[in-house]
Design a protein that fits this description.
With 148 residues, the chain is of the alpha+beta class. It is built from 6 helices and 5 strands; from the N terminus they run ααααββαββαβ. The protein has one domain: Winged helix-like DNA-binding domain superfamily/Winged helix DNA-binding domain (Arc Repressor Mutant, subunit A), CATH 1.10.10. A 3-stranded mixed β-sheet has the order 4-3-5, with no helix packed on it. A two-stranded antiparallel sheet has the order 1-2. β3 and β4 form a beta hairpin. α1 packs across α2 and α3 crosses α4. The protein starts with 5 loop residues before the first helix and ends in a 6-residue tail after the last strand.
């Protein structure tokens, strides 16, 4: 999905952690690499399934630190499970497809022309409210191929 390189993602993550006095440990580096390779929002359980040698406590602890340092962000799914992905300002702007049956979340990148149209609609929607829009997040709800 993203046109950004893994090395650029590592550099951004390392910079954010070091700027806050945190270490970019091998465990955190492995989580960033895994999130990059999966290319979609995932639960901690999915992280543990993908890397069974990692301990549950270190995954949760490191994800919490990475979220606090704005390296990862939470993404709402179609269920009550918390999902995380690399921060949008690191990997690029995108939207999500959310299955309301199984809760799956997939990244969706749309054309620049469509993004401009969405921005125009949202700018018009907040016109006269005094609210200054600086961006948007868009989830498309429906049923995934597997659940259809």
């Amino acid at each position: 999905m993203s046109s950004v390189s893994l090395s650029a993602v590592h550099e951004a993550a390392k910079r954010r952690l070091l700027d806050a006095g945190q270490m970019y440990t091998s465990g955190r580096r492995e989580l960033v690499e895994l999130l990059f390779s999966l290319g979609r929002p995932v639960t901690a359980h999915e992280v543990l399934e993908a890397r069974p040698k990692l301990t549950q406590s270190s995954v949760y602890r490191n994800l919490a630190v990475l979220e606090e340092m704005r390296v990862v962000q939470r993404v709402a799914g179609g269920d009550d499970r918390t999902r995380v992905e690399l921060a949008e300002d690191i990997i690029g702007h995108h939207h999500h497809l959310v299955c309301v049956v199984c809760g799956m979340v997939e990244d969706l990148v749309i054309s620049a022309k469509a993004e401009r149209a969405i921005d125009t609609v949202f700018d018009q929607a907040v016109e006269g409210t005094g609210f200054i829009a600086t961006g948007h997040r868009l989830d498309i709800l429906g049923t995934c191929k597997r659940c259809a």
